[in-house]
Design a protein that fits this description.
CATH architecture of the largest domain in chain B: 2-Layer Sandwich
Number of strands of chain A: 20
Strand order of the largest sheet of chain A: 16-13-15-14-18-19-17
Helix content of chain B: 25-40%
CATH topology of the largest domain in chain B: Uridine Diphospho-n-acetylenolpyruvylglucosamine Reductase, domain 3
Order of helices and strands of chain B: EHEEEEHEHHEEHEEEHEEHEHEHEEHEEH
Shape of chain B: globular
Structural class of chain A: alpha+beta
Helix content of chain A: 25-40%
Distance between the termini of chain B: 14 Å
Oligomer: heterodimer
Strand order of the largest sheet of chain B: 4-5-9-7-8
CATH class of the largest domain in chain A: Alpha Beta
Strand content of chain A: 15-25%
Radius of gyration of chain B: 20 Å
Number of domains of chain B: 3
CATH topology of the largest domain in chain A: Uridine Diphospho-n-acetylenolpyruvylglucosamine Reductase, domain 2
Number of helices of chain A: 17
Largest interface: A-B, 92 and 84 residues
Largest sheet of chain B: 5 strands, antiparallel
CATH superfamily of the largest domain in chain A: Uridine Diphospho-n-acetylenolpyruvylglucosamine Reductase, domain 2
Chain lengths: 481, 359
């Protein structure tokens, strides 16, 4: 059967763009969730939207599962291959098809890397707002499929909030075009429904993104606190003040230790937590709001506050923050990243309970989180070489997710359900709700060939195995957050 | 029109849906054309009240029939607001009707439209099941994003029962600058410049007179003084008094400028605005409010006689219109038909209990 399928696929692409040898497939066996791996039958590397459409239609005829993949940075195992299926690697669909500074939009192919959009837009004073920590490597196609976030979501939303139009091939083989270059639409929001589909609906071929004007002025402050509670209290005070910062982030002591080791960032000594707050806007506005923020921070009794004096210092603050996760690799051979959300007012309580639970599990847990929107990223450290350690870490991760649900939050803020959290979906949604989602999926993909085994519980379980850091992670290119 | 159902609780709503073979939900009936179909009318007005409001979370949850005015007042008391700037507030628009009609106002320019602030929904599907999708926290990526799909879904896929929104702190003050523009080309060009400027305008709207561009700024008063001076050094205009500004924005929000005839929403772009304006000029008695920096046009026709010509011209421009009120077909211009539309309709409403988008 597989030979027949391969030859049919080979008729759609030049042979060198259809990988079938074991050594070629190895690089695609896993993604950012390295604990899982699975070898696909083949990897197809299309170079045009038409080739993607042909591949998807061929998969449909052959009932062949396919997994779309960008740079493979998914932390929920969203691009984990399906054994016996193919991977459609979209990296060569990497053209920015249009950039219109007057309309402030870009039309891109799915394999365009996130930061490339902002880099292309920068000469016009524009940027693409979603900024996942993996932004220097992750692709827009993946950002759309998983509705990726970043540090600026409270004010500017996630990827879906920036998608104005889409051309996509659905798993049914239908090619659709939704939305356009207007920031408004009439009729149901199809682009909104497609965003975050986790690859279960089809593959985006052309994405129209809204670009935002880059703020004229930034004011980025780093404040160190003796306790996490104090840092959390400072966040509450900022939120209550009526200010709307572009970003509010917290790193705990263990994360700070890692970041310090990795990028030689300097943080105030003796601090259990560091808060990063960023204001942005016209200079006159920032100047006034800055004074208010200074007063609030002073009242929150930090050990030290350190405002960035220039763009370089601002960059350094963000570099330390964004590398924090991969940096944890220096403290522990293995770790799991969680992505739960709790109501912001319960952050302090959530962190205390995470601390307690990790103590009970005998595991260390570092915390880096988007404090402004209650999105936690506990990093559970463990030694995969120790028998049972991975299972213990997974169990702790599960307890944390259940806590998030119990607090009225979510099991995922920005990484998606993927393979990793699919068993928790029924704890957040009722059987009827999951049935509704399955019916929707069936409308887009009646044969269940698009990224099967993701989001919904059950189905074929992939191999769970300890494999350490991803090679790109070891090289410091990729980070898990 | 058929008889009216009027549930007073979510369980009554579920029961009403289950026991009625064909129905259409209605809110405040402020955009009556959207629900003018042959089906029993289900009023959601009895589902009223804010069920949760946590100012510190920047979120609230309310029953779908809650008037927007009630919500706006509750938010205002805590210094917060709905940044997408809902329309028809005084006229009695409800939260659910606003979502289903997909209407955002001038303020959508700064932080995004309704779709960017909806977080979660509870709705009754065509099988009479009460389902929750999305969440109650400001960030959530679990499950398919049906809350967004319900924005603009016109009550054709389910009945909204309860909705959770993200809100923002209200900025301290706002200034409205009234700029004089000569024609749509100039208006579009100034709008695009302002959109790409350092000023971060809150709203950029062109009044139905076609000669006035209103630019709203929001923030601390001292900053707004400086920004206003800078803008007025480049464009001819004036800063309006608070009262004058409020009158203008409320008139726009409430469509008080519009005639009795068809009122149509069209999604446009600043680039196509001049061509669109040329079309409007050929339609006798037509008036247009161009909102959100040239991304929305609200068109008022004196009566239905001009509709077919408008429809034809809109098609030539490749634009799509939706009739909110008045005697005219629901859709105008170009609409792409997809197979998946009926697939999703079948998934959510297998017995066609709700009318289709074509009805």
């Amino acid at each position: 059967m597989s030979d027949g399928v391969i030859s049919r696929l080979a008729s759609l692409l030049p042979r060198e763009r259809l990988l079938t040898h074991v050594e070629q497939l190895a690089a695609y066996e896993s993604d950012g969730l390295t604990a899982f791996h699975s070898r696909p039958l083949a990897v197809a590397i299309p170079e045009s939207a038409d080739e993607v459409i042909s591949l998807v239609r061929c998969c449909r005829q052959e009932r062949l599962p396919f997994v779309a993949r960008g740079s493979g940075t998914s932390l929920s195992g969203g691009s984990l291959p399906v054994a016996g299926g193919i991977v459609i690697a979209l990296n060569r669909l990497n053209r920015i098809l249009k950039l219109d500074p007057a309309l402030r939009i870009a039309v891109v192919e799915p394999g365009v890397v996130n930061t490339q959009v902002s880099m292309a837009a920068a000469p016009h004073g524009l940027h693409f707002s979603p900024d996942p920590s993996s932004q220097t490597i992750c692709t827009i196609g993946g950002n759309v499929a998983f509705n990726s976030g970043g540090a600026h979501c409270l004010k500017y939303g996630m990827t879906s909030n920036h998608v104005l139009g889409l051309k996509a091939v659905l798993a049914s083989g239908e090619v659709v075009e939704w939305g356009g270059t207007s920031r408004e639409t009439v009729g149901p929001d199809w682009c909104g429904l497609f965003g975050g589909n986790e690859g279960l609906f089809g593959i985006a071929l052309e994405i129209t993104l809204q670009l935002l004007q880059r703020a004229e002025c930034f004011h980025t402050v780093l404040a160190g606190y003796r306790t996490l509670e104090q840092a959390g209290e400072a966040v509450s005070m900022i939120v209550a003040s009526g200010l709307l910062p572009g970003a509010i982030e917290i790193m705990d002591a263990l994360a700070l230790e890692a970041a310090t080791a990795a990028v030689h960032a300097e943080y105030p000594r003796g601090c259990e937590a560091v808060l990063i707050v960023e204001l942005e806007g016209p200079r006159e506005t920032v100047e006034i709001e800055r004074a208010r923020l200074d007063d609030i921070l002073l009242a929150s009794k930090p050990v030290q506050t350190r405002p960035a004096q220039d763009a370089e210092e601002r960059q350094a603050i963000w570099k330390g923050r964004k590398c924090a996760f991969s940096a944890v690799g220096r403290l522990s051979p293995d770790f799991i990243v969680q992505d739960g959300v709790v109501p912001r007012r319960r952050l302090g309580e959530a962190l205390r309970r995470i601390g307690q639970m990790s103590k009970e599990a005998g595991l260390r847990c570092a915390n880096v989180f988007h404090a402004g929107d209650g999105n936690l990223h506990p990093l559970i450290l463990f030694k995969g070489s120790e028998p049972g350690a991975l299972e213990k870490a997974e169990a702790l991760a599960g307890r944390i997710l259940r806590m998030c649900i119990e607090m009225g939050g979510s099991i995922t803020g920005e990484h998606g359900i993927g393979v990793e959290k699919r068993q928790y979906l029924p704890e957040m949604f009722t059987a009827d709700e999951i049935d509704c989602m399955k019916r929707l999926r069936a409308a887009f993909d009646p044969l269940e060939i698009a990224n099967p085994g993701k989001m919904f519980p059950g189905g074929e379980a992939p191999v769970l195995q300890q494999r350490g850091l991803h090679p790109l992670e070891q090289a410091g290119v990729l980070s898990r957050e | 029109m058929s008889a009216q159902l009027a549930p007073n609780s979510i369980s009554e709503l579920v029961e009403a849906v289950r026991s009625t073979p064909r129905l259409i939900p209605i809110g405040g009936n402020t955009k009556p054309r959207l629900s003018k179909v042959d089906a029993a009318r289900l009023s959601i007005a009895g589902l009223r009240g804010i069920t949760e409001y946590e100012p510190s979370e920047f979120t609230f949850t309310a029953l779908a029939g809650t008037p927007i005015k009630e919500i706006a007042e509750a938010l205002k008391q805590r210094g917060q607001y709905l940044p997408f700037d809902p329309m028809c507030v005084e006229a009695g628009a409800t939260l659910g009707g606003t979502v289903a009609s997909g209407l955002s106002g001038p303020g959508r320019f700064r932080f995004g439209g309704l779709r960017d602030f909806i977080l979660g929904i509870r709705f009754v599907d065509g099988s009479g099941r009460l389902l929750r999708m999305g969440g109650k926290v400001v960030k959530n990526a679990a499950g398919f994003d049906l809350p967004k799909f319900f924005v603009g879904s016109l009550g054709r896929f389910g009945v909204l029962a309860e909705i959770t929104f993200k809100v923002f702190p209200q900025r301290v003050t706002s200034h409205t600058l009234k700029l004089t523009v000569e024609g749509a080309d100039a208006a579009a060009s100034i709008s695009m410049q302002a959109a790409g400027s350092r000023w971060e305008p809150d709203a950029i709207d062109c009044l139905p007179d076609g000669a006035t561009l209103c630019l709203r700024l929001a923030g601390p008063p001292q900053a707004l003084d400086a920004l206003s001076r800078e803008i007025l050094s480049r464009s001819k205009g004036e800063v309006l008094s608070e009262d004058e500004a409020e009158t203008i924005w409320i008139d726009l929000r409430e469509f008080r400028w519009a005639a009795e005839g068809p009122l149509i929403k069209v999604a446009i772009t600043p680039a196509i605005w001049p061509a669109f304006a040329r079309v409007i000029r050929t339609l006798s008695g037509a008036r247009v409010h161009v909102s959100a920096g040239g991304n929305i046009a609200f068109l008022s026709l004196p009566d239905h006689t001009a509709f077919s010509k408008f429809d034809e011209e809109l098609r030539k421009l490749g634009l799509c219109g939706l009739t909110l009120r008045g005697d005219a077909p629901l859709w105008s211009g170009t609409r792409t038909q997809t197979i998946i539309t009926s697939g999703v309709k079948q998934a959510l409403d297998p017995q066609n209990r709700f009318p289709s988008l074509e009805d």
